Amino acid sequence: MTDPREPIVWIAGVGWDDMTGTDKRMVLELGRRADVLWVDPPRRGGWSRWRPDPRTGEEVAPGVRRVRIPGLPGFTRWPVRALTRITTETSVRRAVGGSLRTRAVVVANPTGGFPPGVTGRRVLYVTDDWISGASLMGLSPRYLRRTLSRTAREADRIAAVSPGLVGRIESLGMPVTTPAVVLPNGAPPVCTTEPARRVPEAGVVGTLNERLDLSLLEGVVDAGIRLHLIGPRSDRDPEFGRRLDRLAADDLVEWTDRIPADELCSRIGVLAVGLAPYADTAFNRASFPLKTFDYLAAGVPVVSSDLPASRWIGSECVETAEGTVGFVSAVRSRVEAVRRGESTVELADRCRELARSHSWARRAQELLTSIDG
To answer: What is the topology classification, in CATH, of domain 8-186+359-372?
Structure first.
C-alpha cells in the first residue's frame, strides 16, 4: 500500500508556465488531495535557478511545488542526454529528501523516466501519441520508442487519455508488464449561468497549428458562418501558415490570442457551437482534445471531426462528422437553430451535466485510486 502522506512526483511533459494542458489540469486537482512535486522538463538557461537545497521547489499552487531542471542544447542527444538525466534525477532526489519515499512517481514526459532510488508506485501517464508526434516536438521517433519502451517496462501502472491511444501503445509492441487503462481528459468547472443570449456563430478554442484541418474551417467560413478563433498560433509549415493567415484575415473571422483560463468559459458560452476540426492523422486519432470539454463546460454543443475520443463520449452534445460537407452541414444546423431563436437552455444544461460527470476532480480521484489500489 502507498502512504497518502508522502508526495507524488510528477515528471511533466511541459513547463508549469506553458500552455495549460492535461498535465497541469490534472496536477491542480491532485494538489487539492495530495502533496505534488511538479518537475519541469529540461530548459536551456535554467542553471541560475538550480539550487543545491534539499527543499528545492517553489510553491505554484495549493499542494504543488515546482522544480526547474536546467538543460543544455541538444538534451536528447548523447552524451548531453546523460548529463540531463543525472541532473533531473539529482533534482528529484533533493526535492523528495529524506528516505526518498513517495506515494507515486508519474512520468508524463516522452523523454522522462523513473528516478533510481526513489520508491513509490510507478505510473506511466501517456497524454498523446508521442511517437507519431515526434516531428512536432523535434525529436527522433526511434529515440522516443526506445525511451518509452524502457519506461513502460518499469511501470506498475500505465494510463492513457483515449481508447485509441491504448490501442496505439499495444500496437507498438512495447514490453509492458501491466495493461494500459483509459484515463480520459477531464472537464473544467462549468459556467453556472446561461448567457442572456447566444449568437449564431461558431468558435475554435486552443492552439492553432498543423493538427487542425483548415479545410473544415475554410468550409465553415465559405458557408457564410461567422467564426471565432481563440488561442495562440504555433504553426511551423509555411503553406499552412499562409492559409491560416488568409483565414484569420477574412471578414467573417475574429482571432483572439491567448486569454486567461478563468475567462474562457464565459467567452465561449455565447457561441452556438464549438468546433474540434482535427486532421485525420495517427496523432489526432489517438488524442483526446481538451477543447471538447471546454465547450461542454460552457453549455455549448460540439461538432467534431470523426475522432475515436469524440465517439467515446457518446452524447448528443458531441456530434461527429466526416468530410468537409458533413462537418459544415452539422455546424450550420447548430447555428441556424440559434438564428431562428430556438431555446438552447435544455441542451446547454445537458452539456454542462455531461461536463460535470467528466470533471478533473473525478479524473484526479480515479488516478489516486489506481495509485493506491
So the answer is: Rossmann fold (3.40.50)
